[in-house]
């Protein structure tokens, strides 16, 4: 070309050249392993099974059946073609009225019609990913912060911070009380922020939780509302897994709490993020929703939604589908039933080998407790174990440290993105691994016992398992830097 | 009185020079502190509520004070971000005000013949009949159709790569090559798909510039750039003024001056943003100008973003030359060139949200792909459009007929304006014309222009875009989009404008 290298180095922005995207973290190693060697029942039976993607594929057949029976809903078929012109040309960021009405209707349905939603407060966005970023832009300025109870969805580090310049501050939650969000922990996190001169703008919760799969009880929700009101900060509730709850305790939406008489709350502080990606299994449709009780936020978000509008063709399809109340009721019930069955099969299968998961009532995953298999109760050991699971057991699961979990040994394992046969294979692999690891532990223990006995003439009833349990009960260490955070 | 005596002493020199300078400084400091305290505790005034009865001029604020965010009284308690504060206030630009007014009172030949006729939104309704005929003939199967023939929802419902399906990128690259009559085809691996050209522009802005950096933009320019390039990025747009004496074409000397002035202010210019075909004028950048731009960018080591979204909406006899053409055939450094495209104008499907970033820079492509996670195209829409773009015979027929129809409407409309004594700038592309109504404004300036705009909106009941919204340096120019009209609507529009022009001539 004849130009010097320096000429070719145009400066790009910090956003483009920095690590805010988080993809350099070891977390993505699992994804790379899957991408390069994906499991297939016949073509690649020894490949890596994807258990790191929270996708709901269990009820696709119901959607498929509906779409086939309603060709006019797609507008791009002979039956729907006459509406094509108006739909294709519609670019108003308010969205099609029938779309907003249908989404409001669906959101109410999912919450057992215990609350209703106002279609005029619904703002579109590019998936829940876009919804979260949009709210962060609306609620906080660069340098300001959101409080985040741990463990939390790893991509929040990217979605809420990358382009917005907002910070995320963890709120400590521990396994001994099932990672409950306590008032004390919230106050503690808030105070830490004050001391560090960081202005806290809001609290972000995911309910049902990712990665735990648990739902927040009424008392906790009320205490959160009281807390944010006292501090005059926003509360963003990610309710994206609302319809994946398949058993008791059932899901209680923040919208329901607001309706309770004894709850005093400035509604303008409350915002809900929703999407059809998990409940309906439509991540490819990119339907994200911001529902805010704050007029200014609705106004601002609506204008910002120009950067992530939902295709009107998709809006039209969703509007038709979600207005079909009979279908919606049937779908919600059947989807929950299938998730329950799949969850039961999976957890029972695991328990047979002594592997436990956190008791959960929703979500597309389990929060698996593998601390017994850690060589030591450290995050390094967790990463070592994780690498074994990816490369030897050939399952892509997600290590708890990437979710900022304060205790090592937890793993999120997704079960709803595969068919029954694949799940059986995955279960078998986990069972084999657990068995082998147990045997190896027994052998190692016997060796050690012999060494100790011979050198010190002591007989210790040394149990590797109980030693770790002891350690786990000790005061938890301060939340370490997760690989993701380190990378940014 | 008590203050004056010691001050008098100070002035007369008895207090000494130090006291003489210290006391006023101290007083000044405390005054500032006092004012600052009072400014932050004072609640912001409420915005004037938009009223339909009063003139729209009242809605245009000149002051820089921020209006309050929501209803009365809630501002003091609940804070949103200052970004949101700026965005949430009522739209000040006549571009947006006009669009809102049409939504409230849209013209319909049958149902609302006295409504406002939309000439402010560049959309093309001239060839819907072609698409409407194609759709039932070609999209006969359900959207669940896959290439393998098996009906499966996973193809459209499951997670997809956020920067678009590979097959659609291939189809899009071919389509762009066809539209721009490229000798060297576009490369699908350099295509990043986004949910419309709006996020495409913003993503490029985020990739190429930091907060506080700037882009040079020839004026007049598309009002939406102020939002797309600046809002959330914190980037500045520096106008490079083009004039009617140059037919509103870019003058490199003026570009140099604008660059130099920015440098003097300490502002880092990261690139130039051009639209070619230009919006709102509708002219094309010549091969020579494109080469000069590349030379300039190379010399200053900055980027060029070329928004070519109207490339398929040509009607004149002039040849459209894409920046890609220059870069591929001439010996220029490609890493600084980025092209924006989309299907909203050329295929009239703005609702489907299909935009393109085409870049020669690997790092920009990598970064942009990651940023598409916030603005991906809906998967079922991707599959549908793919099949349309791959029908090259239909696309060619569409482009040819579209060109003829735009030409026809352009001639009708421009002739109609001519009859009223209104001339239009030379143009050969786009869905609009750039009309010189400076003869109709009373006081030659932005105020006069906005008064005329207001009359056209409220008396003639047509929404056009005034040049000031496009940062045009010469008052009196208006962008009129004519492709959302039917030929029979043109006389209606001309008549309505005539009412206003006659009123003005009568009163003057």
UniProtKB/TrEMBL annotation, chain A:
The keyword Transit peptide does not apply. Keywords: Ethylene biosynthesis, Fruit ripening, Lyase, Pyridoxal phosphate, S-adenosyl-L-methionine. This is 1-aminocyclopropane-1-carboxylate synthase. It is an enzyme of class 4 (lyase). Transmembrane segments: none annotated. InterPro entries: Aminotransferase_I/II_large, Ethylene_sulfur-biosynth, NHTrfase_class1_PyrdxlP-BS, PyrdxlP-dep_Trfase, PyrdxlP-dep_Trfase_major, PyrdxlP-dep_Trfase_small. It comes from Rubus argutus. PROSITE patterns: AA_TRANSFER_CLASS_1. Its EC number is 4.4.1.14. Its cofactor is pyridoxal 5'-phosphate.
TrEMBL record, chain B:
PROSITE patterns: AA_TRANSFER_CLASS_1. Pathway: Alkene biosynthesis; ethylene biosynthesis via S-adenosyl-L-methionine; ethylene from S-adenosyl-L-methionine: step 1/2. The chain crosses the membrane at residues 15-35. GO terms for biological process: ethylene biosynthetic process; fruit ripening. Residues 40-76 are annotated as: Disordered. Belongs to the class-I pyridoxal-phosphate-dependent aminotransferase family. Keywords: Ethylene biosynthesis, Fruit ripening, Membrane, Pyridoxal phosphate, S-adenosyl-L-methionine, Transmembrane, Transmembrane helix. It comes from the Eukaryota. InterPro entries: Aminotransferase_I/II_large, Ethylene_sulfur-biosynth, NHTrfase_class1_PyrdxlP-BS, PyrdxlP-dep_Trfase, PyrdxlP-dep_Trfase_major, PyrdxlP-dep_Trfase_small. Residues 117-497 form the Aminotransferase class I/classII large domain. This is 1-aminocyclopropane-1-carboxylate synthase. It comes from Rubus argutus (Southern blackberry). It catalyses: S-adenosyl-L-methionine = 1-aminocyclopropane-1-carboxylate + S-methyl-5'-thioadenosine + H(+). PANTHER family: AMINOTRANSFERASE ACS12-RELATED, BIFUNCTIONAL ASPARTATE AMINOTRANSFERASE AND GLUTAMATE/ASPARTATE-PREPHENATE AMINOTRANSFERASE-RELATED. Homodimer. Its EC number is 4.4.1.14. GO terms for molecular function: 1-aminocyclopropane-1-carboxylate synthase activity; aromatic-amino-acid transaminase activity; L-aspartate:2-oxoglutarate aminotransferase activity; pyridoxal phosphate binding. CDD domains: AAT_like. Residues 65-76 have a biased composition (Low complexity).
